[in-house]
């Protein structure tokens, strides 16, 4: 009887240890920011037209950002960019998307950062009150990286631990960035989201916008390096900060680039802190839900009753043996 009880205690402790290990991964993802973008606005300042080539069919929606969302868990930040049309992959990028050129700039600290893009290509500037500290280059062919405002342009970006892929819904690009690559205060972040078209021979990988559309280039621009090569930005639908106002603020006469404004949560969200007990409760709840889903209560009711009785008997045996042990000690 004594050996049997020792084994029972051992397995109970083993179960607790397993639960503690599971608790480390039980923290649910927390949504830090989400914003909808107007549909049908992948026309830059409103004048741009798609290239004539069939690879750009249906010639609308491929670059039309509809939702931007940011999440976090214990290990990573998750950035989601959802588009109006399914993400086609005509050139076979391993990440699952070939058309979209996504540039995410984050302003995380006041009174520092850059107000120009990492390299010339998008042909926009940023609000000087909100210079960027992080640039997440979301692109295909293993070129995605994180760049920092205070590093030299000749230095490579961080690629270790990063993941870029097409999500299962077929319309969303997902960027997974380790938390140590960015700072721990997303409640201070302002976001610039720029959408263009990938072009391996374009300036910094951006497909140019010309005055007239060709088979491979967009039309509706000015044949200069002053009109943006940006087709969509995350912006409100109307007002002085609308997309057309921002991307249309360039001037050929004054040799001035368009200035883009960032977006920011109306109610900033800090990362939740979880105690060990919180994590254990979440782990047990997650495990319990998984068991109930696999073995429904209404079908396996006798099994659950037997398991509960066995557990109660286990507790009684442990209590009985502890009581005996204490009597012998006296």
Automatic annotation (TrEMBL):
Residues 32-261 form the Glucodextranase-like C-terminal domain. Residues 1-23 form the signal peptide. InterPro entries: Glucodextran_C. It holds the Pfam family Glucodextran_C. Gene3D superfamilies: 2.60.40.1190. The chain crosses the membrane at residues 299-323. The keyword Transmembrane applies. It comes from the Bacteria. Keywords: Membrane, Signal, Transmembrane, Transmembrane helix. This is C-terminal binding-module, SLH-like, of glucodextranase. It comes from Carboxydocella sporoproducens DSM 16521.
